[in-house]
Specification:
single chain; 7 helices; mainly alpha
Length: 109
């Protein structure tokens, strides 16, 4: 769930989530379910790792994005690598301009 927790912490738009692999979307749903259960007190404290945010995967995505990979190089990444790159780009956009996130959300509904 570590990767999924990182994806969940990014606050991706629905459109960005659709770009993720099936693996990442399933993991994201599991992380959100775990977060909801933790919020309701249904998980034991040791079961929930949500209290300590980790960013290994997001950091990987930021590093990959900074390299300036070509489309061909991006296609050769693992599924997790591509998902990390997508999440990092979504996070970067969100941090630069919160209005972009609001506009994307409005356009998707």
């Amino acid at each position: 769930l570590e990767f999924a927790e990182e994806l969940d912490s990014v606050g991706m738009t629905e459109g960005a989530e659709k770009e993720l692999s099936v693996f990442a979307r399933d993991a994201l749903a599991a992380a959100r379910g775990a977060r909801a259960r933790a919020g309701l007190g249904l998980l034991e404290p040791q079961e929930s790792s949500l209290s300590k945010p980790k960013r290994h995967w997001i950091d990987l995505g930021l590093d990959l994005d900074a390299v300036g990979l070509s489309e061909r190089e991006q296609e050769s990444l693992s599924i997790q690598g591509r998902d990390a790159l997508i999440a990092a780009r979504a996070m970067r956009i969100r941090q630069k301009d919160p209005l972009v996130l609001a506009c994307e959300s409005s356009a998707e509904t």
